[in-house]
Amino acid sequence: QVHVVESGGGSVRAGGSLRLSCAVSGGTHSTYVMAWFRQPPGKEREFVAAIRLSADLSYYSDALEGRFTISRDNAKNTVYLQMTSLKPEDTAIYYCAASYDFHSGYALERPYIWWGQGTQVTVSS
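The structure corresponding to this sequence follows.
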């Protein structure tokens, strides 16, 4: 019923910027929690950022706050991840995830029930 599709990945030089998009269809987008995770090559998938749409509250990995910003466009049923000052360590497959509203555990994978296929971000030095 609910589909999550990421886009906007690509290859950039260190210091550059990218904006990832996550489009949601088939559900009541405005009451969801949506999040970004990433998986670097050979490493575990890790939390990046989340937004609780019903409360307009955002949550970030401490290491990324200040460079990445999560935002939404309700009219387009889309959540964005604006990434600036990119570093080679940011190279990963970036995944968008979503679920019904909840109030804790945003950095864990388990609460999210809908996942996109991922989009590749490559940052060269």
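The radius of gyration is 13 Å.
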